[in-house]
Automatic annotation (TrEMBL):
Pfam families: YqhG. The lineage of its organism: Bacteria, Bacillati, Bacillota, Bacilli, Bacillales. This is YqhG. It comes from the Bacteria.
């Protein structure tokens, strides 16, 4: 998952949850949490319990997330966030808990006497995880036009440049979709499956070679032992599980977006 993908994901996540973006730099963002979001991700229940019992003034946290520390020129203090980091995993889980599907509209300036047509797009963010004794994860963002069937990759980055709202602007008309979202999702799933099939799978072959090497060591250690102890079977099973090559596909979130 590239830094710009993480950056776009953070912007969308906090915008959709009504957290004000105080500063949006190319390599970091500064965000003002809402009370609800502070309670969800900041892990300070005693603070909120005390505040509510004393009718105190709430002061939700401001956070700075550094999404690309290698390209950061300014002296910015904040939390470095990258794929696999605990914070990003926490936000993924929060997305699932709060509902991973949204419906949003591109905000359009009100021009007297004109009506803007908005086209429906289905957007889906996939996480592809490659597991063996080593782990690799990729975020894949796709959008499909529900009128024409056109598919765009990197759709998350495109959405980050669009001014979105949960309510329709005045003088806009939403085209009714021709392709049903469930059919569109099936097509996107097929694209992901095709991507995986065409990907380089030498990682699985290399994992198998490492498994064979460690297995030979294990067999050598117990060579000549007629009645092998239980720990031998336990070690062998653990080794098989550790090196087993497998792929998991998760949908992080998605939505129906009406765009110009």
């Amino acid at each position: 998952m590239y830094p710009q993908q993480i950056h776009s994901y953070l912007l969308q996540f906090f915008n959709e949850n009504h957290c004000q973006i105080l500063n949006d730099n190319d390599h970091y963002i500064n965000v003002q949490l809402t009370v609800d979001m502070d309670k969800k991700i900041m892990n300070r229940p005693y603070y909120w319990k005390y505040l509510e019992s004393t009718d105190g003034e709430p002061s939700p946290a401001q956070l700075t997330f550094i999404t690309d520390k290698n390209r950061l020129v300014e002296d910015v203090k904040g939390e470095v966030i990258h794929f696999g980091s605990p914070r990003l995993s926490q936000l993924f889980e929060a997305t699932k808990e709060m509902g991973s599907f949204v419906q949003m509209y591109e905000r359009v300036a009100d021009k007297l006497g004109t009506q803007t047509i908005l086209t429906p797009w289905l957007a889906v963010n996939y996480k592809i995880s490659y597991y063996s004794d080593q782990t690799k994860e990729i975020l894949y963002s796709l959008g499909i036009n529900l009128m024409t069937g056109q598919v765009k990759e990197g759709f998350q980055e495109l959405l980050s440049t669009v001014d979105l709202d949960t309510a329709m602007s005045e003088n806009t008309f939403n085209l009714p979709y021709i392709i049903k979202p469930i059919r569109a999702l099936e097509r996107l799933d097929g694209i992901i499956d095709n991507f995986i099939q065409k990907a380089d799978h030498t990682w699985a072959e290399e994992a198998k070679l490492r498994w064979q090497k460690d297995r030979r060591v294990l067999e050598y250690f117990y060579e000549g032992v007629e009645n092998k102890p239980d720990c031998y079977e336990i070690e062998k099973e653990a080794m098989d599980q550790q090196y087993e090559a497998r792929i998991k596909i998760d949908i992080i979130n998605g939505g129906l977006f009406y765009l110009k």
